[in-house]
Amino acid sequence: MTAHAGGDGDDGASDPSGAAGAASEPGISGAASNPGGPVAPSEPGGSADCLFCRIVAGAEPASIVHADDAVVAFLDAVPVNPGHVLVVPRVHASGLVDLPVDVGAAVWRVAHRIAAFMRSDPAWSEGVNLHLSDGAVADQSVGHVHLHVIPRFKDDGLRIVQDRDPARPSRDELDAVAARLSRDLTKAASSS
User: Where are the domains of the chain?
Assistant: First the structure.
């Protein structure tokens, strides 16, 4: 799948501040400052080469929307729409396989809170996309897990499309894949 919009989905790598318009956005107070005080350094395992670890550590500027012990949320420097937020764990995790389940739940909780607020106020959005790319072939552009909260408006230019016509599998084919995935999930859970 490919996302098409005015921005390039750069996740802030070119300008991590995301400061454009942040202070004047209604509804989320303190968007241009850190509402939770100074952002503490990343957990062990963070990397000086990781843009998001540097943001979490306070070594790079960011327009912080939320910060707590597990998660930091800040504006994307290349937003699809104003208020486009990246929710990142403080602990460095390159992908979902590296992310502790409780930290993943914390990322989701914060994204849910932000998205639910945006949906409750039409000035912020008419809809919301939550998006996470895991791995290079999924177009993950920064090697630190991050969940996009993208406020949407009619005709905003973002389209999530497949580059091919998808085949429509039969119910038997779907059931076979579901059985295989369920079996493998059960096997993985019992070995951990």
Answer: 2-166
